Amino acid sequence: IYMCLYFFLMIRRPPRSTLSSSSAASDVYKRQNKQWVNTQTTENPAFFDKCAVHQPEYLWIGCADARVPPDQLLGQAPGTVFVHRNIANMVQGIDVNLMSVLQYAVDVLKVKHIMVCGHYECGGVKAAMESSDHQSPLEDWLRSIRDVYRLYQGELDCIVDTRQRCSRQRWCSGTGCHLPRTQPSRTHSRRSTP
Q1: Which residues contact 3 (CB under 8 A, 6 or more apart)?
Q2: Dist. CA 144–CA 52, nearest whole Å
Q3: Model pTM score
Q4: Per the residue annotation, which of 122, 166, 168, 170 is the catalytic one?
Q5: Is 67 annotated in the active site?
Q6: Residue 178 catalytic?
Q7: For the chain, which ranges sit under pLDDT 50?
Q8: Would you give the DSSP letter of residue 135?
Q9: Quick one: which of 5, 15, 30, 90 has the fewest CB in 10 Å?
Q10: Residue 146 bears catalytic tag
């Protein structure tokens, strides 16, 4: 996380007054990471050796929303779920990042199951259903959800409650699945070839 934070600071070039608070946050994250490492190695000395093997059985394609941590939702330990996340858990054939993850998961990691999972109150779906321009690249990314909204607009606009409308939009679009709060769905087993 230290490198990501540093990269973020370099790109955004925040005003000098915020650099000291960003540096303090970076120090906190580094200290917390060291504590986490110490806890893991104390509780299980082979923790990092086991994680290095990295033989996940599952590929999770889900939303980038921080409230939806795949390992925790599935009750799995680190290293058991290979994860791809993006806004509104979109699966698009033109997304080179997703296609690369999918290819690597199937061909190299030999995952047995692929899960495409949505969640309630997805900000990406809600943003796609708004009439405001979110500007590129986000607006470009949301275009396919907007297209589905346009196709089902009559049905969706009859739903007065915004939360229910967004949940129905997620179902209509097929970009995810309408799930109980923590149960994954649409799990596809990889067929073995003779």
Answers
A1: none
A2: 37
A3: 0.67
A4: 122
A5: yes
A6: no
A7: 1-12, 19, 174-194
A8: -
A9: 15
A10: no
